[in-house]
């Protein structure tokens, strides 16, 4: 089995397990649901990776020493720890996983914007990646020929069950509100290629529901196109929304970690998207400090406008 197929299988299966956790625990105790989801998916991924790739290093959000006190419902076991730092930094193959990205949305009934991320870093590049969107019944992943694929079409549209997600908006210079629709993509099973913005005068930007970058209001004043901000949970779901044509870009700043972006960036790059830091620098993984606080993902045609606008705001 290739690394691509393994990443896809593990992300998909961890996603199935997370749907079962939601069924088992319900939504009454959101702390227990979040912690149990985080840890059951983490334990599943750690066990499968140890079995299938025993020599590879692993960096998981839930295997850090700082979360060693966290527990799943009905278990007193501490989370399986990540590969020790010095071994990980020296390893030629490092799996970077986020067992449950969008933990907050996972704990909210009816929300579909949460994901499982499985990526493989091989020293200087993202060699494979898979993002499972269990609520929508799909896994986006890289392939052996350097491309990306959506093996089956989405079982659901939008990011809330029964409805489509909608966004608040900031228009170009005026900064007035208008509405944006997050679920206007046309995802079909098959090869995944990031689509160009449908309207060249408008860029729909997916942003965090709770921590949208403060500079986006200023950015709207500095770019020659209208910007619609579309709040969606989970970095994996937001980057998937770019690849599925439901939004045109994902902009984040102010804090994030390697596991939040490694797998979705792997898929985005393989799908022909621009994926970089917000200053245009490349995304580098497997550092001693796993903080990777900002990211821009978009079609290459939108990158110059967004990067120069962000540079202007930073000045
Ligand atoms: N300012 C910040 N500092 C640290 N992590 C952040 C962050 N903003 C977003 N993230 C992380 O990025 C992921 C997507 O966030 P959001 O939905 O707000 O866009 C979440 O991962 P987890 O759900 O795995 O914790 C969240 O914790
Ligand atoms: Mg995350």
Automatic annotation (TrEMBL):
UniProt cross-references to SUPFAM superfamilies, sorted A to Z: Carbohydrate phosphatase
Pfam families assigned to the protein according to its UniProt record, in alphabetical order: Inositol_P
Compositional bias ranges of the Polar residues kind: 73-83
Disordered, as annotated region: 64-83, 173-195
Record-linked InterPro entries: CysQ/Inositol_MonoPase, Inositol_monoP_metal-BS, Inositol_monophosphatase-like, Inositol_monophosphatase_CS
Keywords assigned by UniProt, alphabetized: Magnesium, Metal-binding
Catalytic activity annotation: adenosine 3',5'-bisphosphate + H2O = AMP + phosphate; a myo-inositol phosphate + H2O = myo-inositol + phosphate
EC number: 3.1.3.25
Regions of compositional bias (Low complexity) in chain numbering: 173-190
Protein known as: inositol-phosphate phosphatase
């Amino acid at each position: 089995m290739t690394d691509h197929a393994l990443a896809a299988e593990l992300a998909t299966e961890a996603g199935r397990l997370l749907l079962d956790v939601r069924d088992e625990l319900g939504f009454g105790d959101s702390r227990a649901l979040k912690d149990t989801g985080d840890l059951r998916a983490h334990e599943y991924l750690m066990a499968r990776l140890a079995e299938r790739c025993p020599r590879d290093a692993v960096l998981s959000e839930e295997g850090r020493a700082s979360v060693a006190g966290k527990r799943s419902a009905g278990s007193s076991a501490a989370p399986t720890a990540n590969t020790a730092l010095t071994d990980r930094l020296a390893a030629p193959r490092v799996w970077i996983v986020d067992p449950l990205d969008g933990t907050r949305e996972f704990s909210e009934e009816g929300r579909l914007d949460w994901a499982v991320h499985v990526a493989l870093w091989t020293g200087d590049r993202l060699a494979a990646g898979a993002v499972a969107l269990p609520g929508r019944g799909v896994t986006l992943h890289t392939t052996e020929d350097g491309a990306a694929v959506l093996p089956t079409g989405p079982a659901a549209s939008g990011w809330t069950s029964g409805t489509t997600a909608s966004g608040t908006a900031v228009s170009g210079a005026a900064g007035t509100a208008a509405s944006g629709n997050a679920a206007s993509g046309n995802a079909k099973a098959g090869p995944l290629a990031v689509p160009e913005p449908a309207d060249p005068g408008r860029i729909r930007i997916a942003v965090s529901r709770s921590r949208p970058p403060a500079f986006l209001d200023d950015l709207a004043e500095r770019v020659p196109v209208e910007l619609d901000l579309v709040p969606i949970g989970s970095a994996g779901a937001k980057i998937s929304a770019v690849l599925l044509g439901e939004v045109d870009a994902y902009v984040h700043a102010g804090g994030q970690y390697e596991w939040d972006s490694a797998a979705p960036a792997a898929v985005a790059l393989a799908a022909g998207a621009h994926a970089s830091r917000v200053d245009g620098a490349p995304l580098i993984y497997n550092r001693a400090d796993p903080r990777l606080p900002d990211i821009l993902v978009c079609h290459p045609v939108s990158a110059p406008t967004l990067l120069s606008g962000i540079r202007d705001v930073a000045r």
